[in-house]
Amino acid sequence: MLDLTAQWEGLLAIAIFVGAYLLVIFEETTQMRKSKPVLMAAGLIWALIGIAYAAAGHSADAHAEATAVIEEYGELFLFLLVAITYVNTLEERRAFEVLRARLVALGLSYRQLFWLTGILSFFLSAMLDNLTTALIMGAVVLTVGKHSRRFVTLGCISIVVAANAGGAFSPFGDITTLMIWQKGKLAFGQFFDLFIPSLVNWLVPAILMWAALPKTKPEPTGEHVQLKPGARGVMVLFAATILTAVMFKNFLGLPPAVGMMTGLGYLQIWSYVLQRRGARRNDDDMVLDSFAQVARVEWDTLLFFFGIIFAVGGLGVLGYLGLASQVLYTGYGPTPANITIGALSSIVDNIPLMFAVLTMDPAMSHGQWLMIALTCGVGGSILSIGSAAGVALMGQAKGLYTFGSHLKWSWAIILGYAASIATHLVVNAALF
Prior knowledge:
The protein is built from 21 helices and no strands. The chain is mostly helical.
């Protein structure tokens, strides 16, 4: 590859990337969806690469680099498309409404609900994603805590930390862990070495916040919600889809996305069965339109991933990621580098950071790849804007959970961040 870090093409590309990312950060102010500026930035950056490589007579090399990035994004896109479709289908079958209603009806105290929602967020995030988990648990906290502002604030902070921590020990729990797994840096089972460090990451701030919770009990509600027909079948097929993806990767050497697309076939057949049954019984609740659930996929998010991955990939082709790798991983060493990148994820989205690390591809041990999976996954909890879970809950609990209210407890979250890293270094010392 050509080193264009000091050339006008490279400098202009950096300016374009920074400008686009500033528009992403100020999305709420500009009312411009985050995918739009990064899509434009990605196209312009690769146009600059094309100009530079064509002038040097290396257009074929630029084409090969672009094709490699397309392949990486294609695998991620297909995987996420299926996972999000299943989550949408479970929502349509009222699975999450039933969970919320049953939790609210338990009649627990605020302190008991704080621990229950945190624990559920931790484990649900490992199977779903931090955004969906945060929205489900956030609805519970808002419903039972309508008379306690303090409970809602602390409950939302706990949910954000727990959802991000839970996603770090599972290949399906976060986009960053999924990227590491698909890249082959860690095997499926190796991520579970992070279970204890991830749990510590949530437990430390949760214990510190617990004393500030009210000791009273909210009034129980009599809300009753039932699952739609076929919901349990969708749950079983979702589990079967994940198992298929793992088997395709581990035993057949095929991309996990192929297994996930096979799982989408499971859902399509099940929706056909439900539609036939619903037509015979004249039961509209039974009818499931799986294509409608595909259409409900959050395209702004998927296109944002495309723009970010291509823009960061372009910076790698220009030579900037190699330069960053030399400074961070060669100059400071992998442990300080991984801790720093994790802290940066509280400000910058963890997806471009992880893609940058994977593109740099520093020589690291199993323990260090787990380290970056941990830090990049949980570092976003330090600030409310550092993860999708935090941003979503700020919108869901307007005025109750804010940037400022989260910032007041950032010191506790930082202690949890440090404790999780220390735990990983001790518990998984043999992996370094």
